[in-house]
Amino acid sequence: MYSYKIYHFLKLADVFSIINACFGFSAIFFAFKGIFTYSFVLVILAIFFDSLDGKLARYMKQSSRFGVDLDSLSDVVSFAVAPAFFFYLFSSLHIFIRLIVAFVFLTAGILRLARFDIMKLFERDYPHKKGVYIGLAVPVAAFFASMSVFIIVYYCSGFIANLLLAIVYLFLSYLMVSDIEFKKPRILV
């Protein structure tokens, strides 16, 4: 007899994924309130907790398909939705351009996470070098996107700065879905 109770699926590492998602949601909330410093710090905290969940699951030998999916869903909130919302909210470009750039970043983040999960699930069919990511990791893209918004909000403004912000977001979007190999950061290996 199978049990479908959530607590049968949840492991300790999954709590870190949920905390990651909560930090991502909180980052959106504070951005909406106009307190972007908190948003930026919360994205960094989400990155930290995201780096811990997988390590903890492997260390405790508690890796599961549920945990992998939960991690990816949490990553979508913190590293795709939140930075896309930041761009839309803080850029002063035309609303149509803000929506397009935010949608492109969001879509690239979701596609990158889906590709990562498929490559992990079917490693035999998608061999790749150890210690590298194919395409820029979504948390790394989120960090640079959020840092760019932080710079615009607190240090620069004007059309040129906002245009550069859009270019940074589009470039990060391209890097996420590209097949360029990126070395895994030391803290994530």
Note down, in words, how this protein is organized.
The chain has a two-stranded antiparallel sheet with strand order 1-2. It is mainly alpha-helical and 189 residues long. The chain is built from 7 helices and 2 strands; from the N terminus they run αααααβααβ. The chain has one domain (6-188): Four Helix Bundle (Hemerythrin (Met), subunit A), CATH 1.20.120. The protein is globular and about 60 Å long. Helix 6 (138-154) packs antiparallel against helix 7 (159-177).
Summarize the structure.
With 189 residues, the protein is mainly alpha-helical. It has one domain (6-188): Up-down Bundle (Four Helix Bundle (Hemerythrin (Met), subunit A)), CATH 1.20.120. It has helices at residues 6-9, 12-32, 36-59, 65-90, 95-121, 138-154, 159-177; strands at 132-134, 181-183.
Span of the ends, CA to CA: 38 Å
- DSSP helix fraction: over 70%
CATH superfamily: CDP-alcohol phosphotransferase transmembrane (TM) domain
* Estimated structural class: mainly alpha
Architecture, according to CATH?
Up-down Bundle
Enumerate the strands of the largest sheet in spatial order, edge to edge or round the barrel: 1-2
Order of helices and strands: HHHHHEHHE
Summarize the biggest pleated sheet: 2 strands, antiparallel
Tally of separate helices: 7
Strand coverage percent:
under 5%
Tally of domains: 1
